[in-house]
Amino acid sequence: MESTFLMYKNFKAVDFFQDEVFSSSAFSSKEDDLLFWHALGDTYPELRLEMETAKKWILLIRKQPIREQSASAEVIWQNIQDKLPIYARRQTRLYRVQTITRWSARIAAVFLAVMLIYEISHLGPKSAKTTFGERREVVLPDESMIDLNSNSKISYVRDWKSDKPREVWLTGEAMFEVKHTAILNRLRENDRFVVHVADLALTVLGTKFNVKERRGRIEVTLFEGSLQITGGNGIEKLLVPGETFVYDQHAKTEQLLKKDVAKVSSWTRGELDIEHANLSNIVEVLEDNYGYKVILTDSNLLEKRLTGTIPVSKVKDILFVIKHTMDVNIQVKDKEITINSK
Amino acid sequence: MKDESQWWEMFRMGDEASFKSIFERYQSLLFNYGYKFTQDENLIDDCVQELFVKLWYNRENLGDTASVKNYLFKSFRRILSRKLERASRFLSLQTISSEKLPFDIELPSDVDLMRKERLAEIRQQLSQALDKMSPRQREIIHLRYFEEMTYEEIADVMGLSIKDTYKLFYRAMDSLRKHIGKINLLALLSIVGYLRSS
């Protein structure tokens, strides 16, 4: 013990501070450790002050105020979790670049060129069109279904982004079955589906509806869900199922009707379901959907009414029905139909 | 610490709960250490975040570690010094090398503590002596006495060889010796001056 004491005989505060044994045991809770320094102080009283000073230095450094972030650990943890996927992407990209060898780079270049050509050829608007007498089913990129009636056209931008609504432009008549993509409590821009027809915009989330645009007259019939109409002349309407909104683009008039939805959708089954309809309704079908020009020699014929379901898949069938139920004479020459009263 | 090495092992296997436990144990210690280098709290938070994000993605490449604390301090220090160097490049034309990054030891100023332990005067002396030291000398003192790290651990955290770590520490002690001595001498001279004038 004495020889160990001797070692400390000429120590100053800094030497004690520096001494590994002192600095690790001066604050020890073990009595043996403390006893040693007490004994040393008893042997060399002049060392007491030096030891006391060194101890105070250590104490001061240990008692430095603790700094804590203002954001809670929860927030920082959340930030870390949010960043994990981003970091993963960056890491894999780096990794990919590093491991590309010369030949794989070449393959990649060829592949890239093919992809680029493919992308460019598919960019921009895409459209589906039907000619007279043709009906077609169109599946959109989001798996929404569209039944396109004759002489109609639908166009859309191929690449639907998540920050923009799904948009299509329509001329003619079409039945929409829009896929619902919104999840509870989360509505993104592309959960909206917008049909532009004439100067109207029809906005839905996911529903079934029919849009007919002929001769400047737009008819929107809602089957399910809800549908918002905005546009021309400051129109703002919310349709409920079973309602038909009729808008005349030229006269700027609007009308709300109740229609039998089964009748509105009858065309998708290749039929024309009419009740108390005039011959004029059928004339419209012949002209709009089949591209014929219809001449009525007697204007009174327009007021002739009939009720029932007419098959409209073939012009021949339509004419057969008219001829026998309305008791008229019909002549067909090229694309011209002449109807005479008997 | 037994549970800590278990956490580490589980975390390396992709266990998120262990990862979170490591985060919870060390995030405030790391922040406190970071505050010695800079008072920019957002920057320190960013470094803590970056550290743990990196840790998660590199977990499969991480080895056993004798001390999780040491590993985290070392990685954190590297991220922080790189960020501070970059920040200094934006502020001025010259770059602060990691050698010259500031480091402050903030001695307590708690009045009760000062009175009870009769620390005020000693605090003043120590504070002045610390100011005379280089930032790296202050840092080694902090790691040695506050974090209670061994020389091996300090060498690892600061990225120095063991030999250089010892050298740095001895130089810090020399500086302390020199300036404490001077202060005492000054105190003595002022007393002498006081006696003479009276």
How would you portray this structure in words?
The complex is a heterodimer of chains A (342) and B (198). With 342 residues, chain A is of the alpha+beta class. Chain A folds into 4 domains: 2-62, no CATH class; 73-121; 128-259, Jelly Rolls (Sandwich); 270-341, Phage tail protein beta-alpha-beta fold, CATH 3.55.50. Chain A is built from 10 helices and 18 strands. In chain A, the strands form 3 sheets. In chain A, strands 1, 2, 3, 4, 5, 6, 7, 8, 9, 10, 11, 12 and 13 form a 13-stranded mixed β-sheet that branches. Chain A has a 3-stranded mixed β-sheet with strand order 15-18-17, covered by helices on one side. In chain A, strands 14-16 form a two-stranded antiparallel ribbon. In chain A, a hairpin with a 3-residue loop joins strand 10 and strand 11 (235-239). In chain A, helix 4 packs antiparallel against helix 5. The longest helix of chain A is centred in the first third of the chain and has 27 residues, at 73-99. Chain A is rod-shaped. Chain A starts with a helix and ends with a strand. Chain B is mainly alpha-helical and 198 residues long. Chain B has 2 domains: 2-100, RNA polymerase sigma factor, region 2, helix turn helix motif (Rna Polymerase Sigma Factor, Chain: A); 111-197, Winged helix-like DNA-binding domain superfamily/Winged helix DNA-binding domain (Arc Repressor Mutant, subunit A). Chain B is 74% helix and 0% strand. Chain B has helices at 2-12, 16-35, 41-57, 68-91, 111-116, 120-132, 135-146, 151-158, 162-197. In chain B, helix 1 packs across helix 2 and helix 8 (151-158) packs across helix 9 (162-197). Chain B is elongated, with a radius of gyration of 21 Å. The A-B interface holds A 12-14, 17-18, 23-24, 53, 56-71, 73, 76-77, 79-80, 83-84, 87-88, 91 and B 20, 23-24, 27-28, 31-32, 35, 41, 44-45, 48-49, 52-54, 56-57, 105-108, 110, 113, 117, 119, 122-123, 126, 141-142, 144-146, 148, 169, 173, 176-177, 180. Chain B: Belongs to the sigma-70 factor family. ECF subfamily. Chain B: It comes from Sphingobacterium alkalisoli. Chain B: Pfam families: Sigma70_r2, Sigma70_r4_2. Chain B: This is Sigma-70 family RNA polymerase sigma factor.
